[in-house]
Amino acid sequence: MTQHIFSSAEIFLPDWNQVCPETWSVIACDQFTSSPEYWKQAEMLAGNAPSALHLILPELYLEQPNLHDRICKIHDTMKQYLEQGLLKAYDNAMIYTERIQSNGIIRTGIIGKIDLEAYDYHAGSQSPVRATEATVLERIPPRMKVREDALLELPHIMILINDEQKHVIEACGAQKQEMQLLYDTDLMLGGGHVSGWLMNDVQQNAFQERLQKLLNHAGNLRFAMGDGNHSLATAKACYEKLKQEHPEQDFSQHPARYALAELVNLHSPALEFEAIHRIVTETNPAHLLEYLIQKLELSEIPSEQEIVILQGTEQKKYYIHKPCSALAVGSLQMQLDNYLKQYSGKIDYIHGIQTVTQLAQKPDSIGFLLPDMNKNLLFSGVEKDGVLPRKTFSTGHAEDKRYYMEARKIR
Fold first, then answer.
1. How far apart are the first and last CA of the chain?
2. pLDDT surpassing 90 at residue 384
């Protein structure tokens, strides 16, 4: 039998007799990168109690001088939690999850492992598992420092399938009463609620049959990245490095070959594609705006591509008349990149209009609001044109991103 690209895994969860679920679970590390107050609140809530927060590195801290010490502490805490028996292993496990989002809509998914041999994040890839947006290669090495010596991985990776008929994942919901409930908890800081059930062998086999039937009628792109692409790219880079450094070894069954992920249906009503906005700080806003007006021929005359630019308390809609990409986000990103190669400024990518609005009011800052993308065009667009411009879309509000719950050994 051919090995499945997405399959069951040895999954670790906390022993709930020793660990509080709401204190344990924490939001994806790549969220609130411009909001240190959010992570300070999370640290206050977690305190010294066992928490996934102590096992991950919020990307807010990636450029801080004490990075090495933070990473070492993460690795030590992983070892400590395992030695203390705080984590319980479930062999050959798949977990059916239901996440109640901030808007009250339920997002369903399946937790399992993805085969990194079937994934290639490079531009032009024709692999079955593929990045949907351009991967920033410079972002991978700092993240490799966290993963390379880690005993565990905790995933915020979300991988999409194109199941318009909603047969594959959704069918598991009708069987959840026959499954073992593993967790059922509110999530800290406005994250809503999440529940997870352990699927038995019969349910897993039925799920795989439905999935394979869907994939047999799909194109070359079987699985598309919805969230956490740089985390999956980091896992892939670590795995390839391991093989290169030990060419004499067989890594076909090595845990580093896989990455834990949540499989979600692109057509889930809970999954909304929202724009990822931009903020540029430590810059000359007037000069940057003049540069963009010239390079993109911005004006108030309507055209196919539009952006909203925020300076201080002012907002103004501009239309792009000299696009350099099929999408407004691509045109803007290309010229922002060109500008920042020549002039001062630091760019960040923001989920949520309110945050951009607040940040744009700070000195030496300018914000950019972008339109949402039609999610139904994702698979066909990537198949036809290749990866989208980086940070093109977000799968929902920041608070609705995956929270760390499950873990898997990678060494």
1. 26
2. no
Beta-bridge mates of residue 280: 347, 366
Residue owning tokens 């400590």: 80
pLDDT (0 to 100) of residue 223:
96
Say how many C-beta atoms besides its own lie within 10 A of residue 273's C-beta: 19
Whether 174 is covered by a domain: the verdict is: yes
Residue 203 has pLDDT above 70, yes or no: yes
* C-alpha pair distances (Å), 220 with each of 99, 162, 262, 382: 30, 12, 21, 11
**Interval 368-382: pLDDT, tens:** 999 988 898 888 878
384 lies in a domain? no
Q: β-strand 106-115 against 95-100: which pairing, if any?
A: antiparallel
The pLDDT tens digits for 268-280 are: 999 988 899 999 9
Give the C-alpha separation, 176 to 124, whole Å. 40
Range of the domain at 282: 277-369
Structural domain count, the chain: 2
Tell whether 303 and 357 lie within a shared domain: yes
**Which helix or strand (DSSP H or E) is residue 281 part of?**
strand 277-281
- Does residue 386 belong to any structural domain of this protein? no
- Give per-residue pLDDT as tens, 207-223: 999 999 999 988 889 99
Residue 230 class from Cβ within 10 Å (0-12 exposed, 13-18 middle, 19+ buried)? buried
Distance CA 257, CA 264 (A): 21
Report d(CA 325, CA 205) in Å as an integer: 43
